[in-house]
Design brief:
Rossmann fold, 3 domains, alpha/beta
Length: 334
């Protein structure tokens, strides 16, 4: 592999000048920097990011850890990448292979060597963070309601779920079923708590049979909806704890010979892109994923620069997105 010394020799500059140019540091004219970068590109020079870190420099890489097979996490990662590139950072992603696995120690070591900081999209509350506490770089988490030991960015899950139940109640629904998420996540517990609180506050039908266990997965949403539909008195509307569960619920409703929304109203949570592409398009609660990503990146960059986090917990508002899957009880579409 070509070395920095070779780049400097061809450009007719010192190794220090070449280093400043390729690491985007001050002290080099724009013309000289462009020439050095042109030569580096031509001969195939690739910066050794680990060496940059060891010498006290920055690699302009952000590490991201999460489970990429979920729509929520995938959208967050895409938005983190956009926010990072906007400030001349790149992103290195590690996808957790299974829900119960913490990042292997060698992955943490790698991130320590090459990344300036890491954003962790927490899949579950467990000893997941314990592996990262030995890291010596700034870390920010997303979807972690207890920002300890790292600062966190979250959406207001409780308020969002209240909006969902209120919307269905405003449409005249008194008997509202709820498909839970995986309650190892604080966000799932917050959404269930909001559903239960709103049932009491709005004098809606009570009963544990209206709460059906899901897991944030499409199959889990399908099975949970089937149980709700099999009740002696089925609900007239279903609130699913996330969009993916709502997709499964929609399949179960149709297999039962019912129509959405004419026979059963349905609302989800997250507003992943597929929610707007379904037919009918899913009414849902939007998590501000682009804003969450930008907040996490900005918080991490401040920490990289040696600035204390302005807040240990940043909570962003959620929003009701009205589409086509929820209508007034007994109402018609169109």
């Amino acid at each position: 592999m070509p070395t920095l010394a070779e780049v400097a020799k061809i450009a007719g500059v010192s190794i220090m000048t070449a280093s400043r140019a390729v690491n985007n540091r001050p002290g080099v004219s724009e013309r000289t920097r462009d020439e050095i970068m042109r030569i580096a590109d031509e001969i195939g020079y690739v910066a050794n990011r680990a060496a940059q870190k060891l010498s006290g420099g920055q690699t302009h890489l952000i590490g991201v850890i999460g489970q990429l097979y979920t729509g929520f996490t995938s959208e967050l990662v895409l938005n983190i990448g956009s926010a990072a590139r906007a400030v001349d950072y790149e992103m290195l992603v590690y996808s957790l292979p299974a829900e119960n696995r913490s990042p292997p120690g060698n992955v943490v070591d790698l991130l320590n060597q090459v990344a300036d900081g890491v954003i962790v999209i927490l899949p579950y509350e467990s000893d997941y963070l314990a592996t990262l506490t030995r890291s010596h770089i700034p870390i920010v988490t997303i979807d972690q309601t207890k920002p300890d030991p790292f600062p966190a960015v979250i959406a207001d899950n409780y308020a969002g779920a209240r909006l969902a139940v209120q919307h269905l109640a405003d449409l005249g629904h008194k008997r509202i079923g709820f498909i839970t998420g995986n309650e190892r996540l604080a966000s799932a517990r917050d959404r269930r708590r909001a559903y239960c609180d709103m049932r009491s506050q709005l004098n809606l039908d009570q009963g544990d049979d209206l709460i059906s266990k899901g897991d944030f997965q499409q199959k889990g949403g399908y099975e949970a909806a089937k149980r709700l539909l099999a009740l002696k008195r089925p609900p007239t509307a279903i609130f699913a704890a996330n969009d993916v569960s709502a997709f499964g619920a929609m399949t179960a409703i149709r297999q039962a010979g019912l129509r959405v929304p004419e026979d059963m109203s349905l609302i989800g949570f997250d507003d992943i892109p597929l929610a707007a592409q379904l037919h009918p398009a899913l009414t849902t609660i939007r998590q501000p994923l682009p804003q969450m990503a930008r907040a996490a990146v900005n918080l991490l960059l401040a920490m990289i620069a040696g600035i204390d986090a302005p807040s240990q917990l940043i909570t962003l508002p959620t929003q009701l997105i009205v589409r086509e899957t929820a209508i007034k009880i007994g109402g018609r579409v169109g």
